[in-house]
Amino acid sequence: MVINDFLEDNFIFKGKRQKMVQLLANEGITDRRVLLAMTVLPRHFFIDSTYAEHAYSNKPLPIDKNQTISQPYTVAFQTQLLNVNPGDKILEIGTGSGYQAAILIKMGAKVFSIERHKVLFEKTKTLFKHLGLKAHLFYDDGFNGQPLFAPFDKILITAAAPTIPNNLLQQLKQGGILVAPITNNHLQTMTVFKKIDDTNFEIKKHGQFSFVPMLKGKE
Description:
- This protein is α/β, with parallel strands linked by helices.
- The chain has helices at residues 11-26, 32-40, 72-82, 99-106, 118-131, 166-170; strands at residues 61-62, 68-69, 89-93, 110-115, 136-139, 152-157, 172-184, 187-195, 201-209.
């Protein structure tokens, strides 16, 4: 996918975006910071212009490398669980389209995002430059995390795995929060891990979702 040549916002898109955000609020998203970020950030900038008319529907859409941009509700729900505060240092595993990272940036977080697909990494890097979004983007294996920049206040995993790699748990600061979809018997449960100390975590589960699998290596 080349850089989106549809980087224009207008009253039609803004109106659709406001309706999308109202839907999210009606569905239980209560964090006003999340809703505000999703109101001001054009989702259609992060998809191919072919799908622009569907950008504000509450559904996932295809991007390169057989990946998807998550449906807006999923993005909002994960972000709300993170309890983002301005200045938080957040590690994201799975940059994808860059939309989730951009939401975190709009909320004032310092974002470190890893993508294993070179095409998606390059596309997001170019898009962020065009949009003036500042983040630390890495083309790397997400299982490794980014130990040189650890510890992180929050970690967000945007792909499903049966367990959390120990590397990532070690890179979360004490009291920090990790949010990830955990696979169990073909179901993916959104799970929050709050780090009590190096060996103990408070774990809470929050419903079923659908994500692409978390894979090792780079492509």
